[in-house]
Every structure is written in structure tokens, then in C-alpha cells.
Amino acid sequence: MRSLALSFALLAAGSSAVTAASAPTCAKGLYMVVARGTEEPAGTGVTGNLTSQIAAKVPGSQVVAVDYPATFDDYEGSEGKGVQDMQKLLNAYGQACPDNKIAILGYSQGAQVSSDSVCGGGGSPFIDDKALSTSIMDNVVAVAIFGDPSHVANLTYDRGTSVRDGIFNRTEASIDVCKSYSSRIISYCDTGDIYCDSGSNTTVHHLYIERYGDDIVNFVVSQYEKAVGSSSSNSSSTTTAPPTSSATASPTSGGSGGRTNSTTSGPTKSASASTSPKSAANALTPAAGSLIFGVGLLAVLSQML
Ligand SMILES: *[C@@H]1O[C@H](CO)[C@@H](O)[C@H](O)[C@H]1NC(C)=O
Ligand SMILES: *[C@@H]1O[C@H](CO)[C@@H](O)[C@H](O)[C@H]1NC(C)=O
Ligand SMILES: *[C@@H]1O[C@H](CO)[C@@H](O)[C@H](O)[C@H]1NC(C)=O
Ligand SMILES: *[C@@H]1O[C@H](CO)[C@@H](O)[C@H](O)[C@H]1NC(C)=O
Ligand SMILES: *[C@@H]1O[C@H](CO)[C@@H](O)[C@H](O)[C@H]1NC(C)=O
Ligand SMILES: *[C@@H]1O[C@H](CO)[C@@H](O)[C@H](O)[C@H]1NC(C)=O
Fold first, then answer.
1. What pLDDT was estimated at residue 23?
2. Of these four, 122, 184, 189, 292, which has the most CB atoms within 10 Å of its CB?
3. pLDDT score recorded for residue 276
4. Which residues are near ligand 5 (CB < 6 Å)?
């Protein structure tokens, strides 16, 4: 069994263009792959707040950060590298640990890295990445993202108050792939967010963990428990920790913060006045963006540290 897994891992390493990291260790709990937001220091960024809470509820979990620049500078190149590394990690893990469960989390640029990895690249101006294979996706129990600049409004897996698309386009083909996984995805975006909602409020983009952190944690944990409960005869092992909401005052997710009531309207992409990809990409250049992103993020981080 072990040697079989190992040979799969070697196979994966051999067939991958990029040198694969050392063969993954199969986690008893969840294997969580995290893509941080733009200009967060290397590691998991603020999303680590959530993965540590999840790991506390799913013993034996492993958290791995996507290794990519996460810069504004050459956003497209940075994002593309993120997709490459995320897919490399997931392919390697899926091959080596075909019976184990995976969760994907991403914030901001890292949310786009996640959605492009899962659904295929949004198209020009981004690298035309291919979606992860369905066999790898079979083990992905949850995709939890927030502040995705390629957010598509009014899909069933959308959460938060936004009813507008993000600043980057996503192709219909890519949206179709996303939809095929809709029961496993949650994508948070609130009205006003300068990236995922094409809005003008510079604060909103930094409030997701505070507003929805508990919901995201509970979603990932329950998806894991559902998957393990139904796919293994080992149900007694999953000590279902009741979702003890952390001592922190419960976030303002009540009322307006609920999920979008997705009416029948599909993702009608009125291409008309929407920002062209190029100018949208320019909106994320350091000049315009890093001030907003960087300063806001520092504020958030300093609050947290
Ligand atoms: C989403 O739905 C709302 C309410 O139906 C609508 O006003 C809005 O235009 C839709 N957004 C997009 C991008 O289609
Ligand atoms: C967005 O994508 C749609 C569907 O692929 C396309 O028709 C439209 O022209 C694109 N819009 C922009 C601004 O690139
Ligand atoms: C931005 O959003 C935050 C959070 O909802 C709100 O408190 C603030 O007043 C908004 N700022 C502006 C300029 O609308
Ligand atoms: C995680 O986020 C919550 C809500 O914003 C905050 O109260 C808590 O201090 C954060 N924990 C860490 C470890 O950053
Ligand atoms: C079954 O439960 C045991 C004890 O919690 C655990 O060590 C083991 O990994 C579980 N096996 C599976 C297949 O979930
Ligand atoms: C969505 O809107 C419909 C029609 O207004 C309503 O019947 C339904 O309860 C709403 N669902 C949610 C989840 O708010």
C-alpha cells in the first residue's frame, strides 16, 4: 500500500514539469492548501487564522502555503505562478494520498489563484490554466475563498452581499466548471469591495475574516465530516466537535451579512461597459493598488498581531 502510494508520488513528480516537493505526507485529517493575499508576507497570511481554527477541529490536519510572489507588480505573472504551485501541490498530494481529503482556501489574489486552479484560468489576460482534474477534485471537500477579483455575482455558491462581478473577467467555460463544484465552494464578497465587487470602499476587502470567519471554519469542518462520514466505515473516529463559536464576539454576520439570495438570474456577463482586462490589470499596479491593499492590510495585521 505504502509503496504503491510512493510510486504514484514518483510518477507525479516525474510527469510534472516543475520539480515536485518531497513526497507529501498523508494527513490523517485535512490537507489544507492556502493562497495568501497580495503583499501579505510569505506563508498563509490572515487566512492562517481560519486554518488554525479548522485544524483544531479536525485533528491530524496539515496546512501548506502556496509558494508564489503575491505581488501587485506583474500581477498576472504572480497569479499564474500561484496557480502553478497550487496545482502542483494538489496533484502531488492527490496522487500520493488518494484516500485523503483536501480543502483549498484563498484570499484576494489567492482567491483568484484558487478559483483559477479549480475552474481553469479566467482567460486573457491571465495564463490560460487548465482546471484541476476531476479525480483530484474528488478529494477536495471544500473551496473557501474571499475577496476574489474574478468573482462572478449571483452564483449559488456566492456568499456575502455583493451582486456585482469583480474587476477581472471569468469565461463562461470556467464558470461552468466552477458550477459543477458548487456544493463544495463558498465565495465571499461584500458590496463595496474594490476588487471582488468592483466597488469603491477600501475597507470592505479586509473585513471577511472578522465578518465570516466562523462561517468559513464551520463550512470547511462540516464538509470534511460529511465526506469522511460517508466514505469511510470509520465514522466513530470523527469526534464531531460542536461548532463552539470562539470566545470572540460573534462577527457581524447577522442580518444583511447573510448569503445572497440567488434568484434565477444567471451570471449575465454584460460585456458592455465592463472594464477591459488590461485596464483592470492596471488598476492593480503598485501605484494605484498597493497603497490601498498594503496600507489596509498593514492596519489589519497590526490589529491582529
Ligand atoms: C445579480 O442579481 C441582482 C439582483 O437580481 C441584480 O441586480 C444584479 O444586476 C445581478 N448581477 C449581475 C452581475 O448580473
Ligand atoms: C468577458 O468574458 C465574456 C465571455 O467569455 C466575453 O464575452 C467578454 O467579452 C469578456 N469581457 C471582457 C471585458 O473581456
Ligand atoms: C466602508 O465600509 C465599511 C464597512 O461596511 C463602513 O463602515 C464604512 O463606512 C464604509 N466607508 C465608506 C466611505 O462608505
Ligand atoms: C482571528 O480573527 C478573529 C476575528 O477577527 C480575531 O478576533 C482573532 O484574534 C484572530 N486570531 C488570530 C490568531 O489572529
Ligand atoms: C479511523 O479512526 C482512527 C482513530 O481515530 C484513525 O487513526 C484512523 O486514521 C481512521 N481511519 C480512517 C480511514 O479514517
Ligand atoms: C429568496 O427570495 C425568495 C423570493 O423573494 C424567497 O421566497 C426566499 O425565501 C429567499 N431565500 C432566501 C434564502 O433568502
1. 73
2. 189
3. 38
4. 28, 232, 234, 237
